[in-house]
Write a structure and sequence with these properties.
- 27% of the residues lie in helices and 28% in strands.
- It is built from 8 helices and 14 strands.
- The strands form 4 sheets. It has a 6-stranded mixed β-sheet, with helices on both faces. A 4-stranded mixed β-sheet has the order 4-3-6-5, covered by helices on one side. A two-stranded antiparallel ribbon has the order 1-2.
- Helix 1 packs across helix 6, helix 6 packs parallel to helix 7 and helix 7 packs parallel to helix 8.
């Protein structure tokens, strides 16, 4: 059961052993909530993803944008949970209705339909083919430059905005930063048990702010960088993606093809740049 104070946190009993000395008695821990969210379009079930509750409207729109179902906030009439508060399962189904005069193309919906449960770690399992994803992405035409030292500062700043992680240790984060300027505070920061969900929530926030494409921005993510993270960044027009961990081979290949700068193993001012390295400079020009 989720905590009444935060829908993303639950309390569970645990017996802790080992150092420091433990009593062996049961106590309670804060743990990250993982629950299913069914995403519908005009009542038609499209996908089910395992996520941490919170920012569900952003998650739904970010997912639909990445999958090519919507193109902007103008395509959306409303986004709301189905059912009534207090009913069993309320909050775990969300319906996106098209805007006035908008007809969502059936072929776009069919291309994203997922026939099985989508795990929190999987962002593109339900797409028909990888080529279908690549065909929808335009290379990012953005000559943004960023100091290597700024990326290190952004990682530290993101950690300061990981409230769920600080309490549970069980969620990923995605944060967006302006590449230029002296403000190291993120434009948006989101957390979720799923890496791709955290990015969808962030892109959804950009949709609501009518701030896409996200030119001149750097996306910082926790954990490894896989294909779907780069794909979501490319669709959103984000030129730089950086991670504290390793990239996958497909993530590197897609980043090179989409002209996205992919930085991995970002630890302090040490990093590995796998694609479009010209955007990373020792000092801001």
């Amino acid at each position: 059961m989720a905590s009444g104070r935060d829908p993303g946190i639950a309390r569970r009993r645990v017996v802790k052993l080992g150092a420091p000395p433990r009593t062996g008695e049961a106590e309670t821990d804060d743990v990250a909530v993982e629950e299913p969210l069914e995403i519908r379009v005009a009542g038609d079930a499209l996908a089910v993803t395992m996520r941490t509750p919170g920012a569900d409207r952003e998650l739904a729109l970010g997912f639909l944008y990445a999958e090519g179902v919507i193109r902007s906030l103008d395509d959306v009439g409303s986004v709301a949970h189905c059912g009534r508060p207090g009913e069993e399962g309320f909050g775990n189904v969300i319906d996106v209705l098209p805007g006035a005069g908008v007809v969502l193309a059936p072929e776009r919906v069919a291309g994203t339909r997922r026939g099985t449960l989508t795990a929190a770690a999987c962002g593109v399992c339900g797409r028909l083919t990888i080529e279908d994803l690549i065909a929808r992405c335009e290379p990012v035409a953005d000559d943004t430059r960023i100091e290597a030292a700024a990326l290190a500062r952004f990682i530290r700043s993101m950690r300061d905005h990981q409230a769920l992680f600080a309490r549970t240790g069980g969620v990923h984060a995605a944060a967006l930063f302006a590449a230029a300027g002296s403000n190291d505070a993120p434009v948006f920061a989101r957390e979720d048990v799923g890496r791709h969900n955290a990015v969808d929530k962030l892109v959804g926030a950009l949709i609501f702010a009518r701030a896409l494409p996200a030119a001149g921005q750097a996306l910082i993510v926790s954990g490894r960088t896989s294909f779907e993270i780069v794909q979501k960044a490319a669709v959103a027009g984000i030129p730089i993606v950086a991670s504290v961990s390793a990239p996958s081979s497909l993530a590197i290949d897609l980043a090179a093809r989409m002209n996205v700068t992919l930085v991995a193993f970002l630890r302090g001012e040490s990093m590995s740049v796998y694609s479009a390295p010209e955007r990373i400079v020792a000092r801001r020009p």
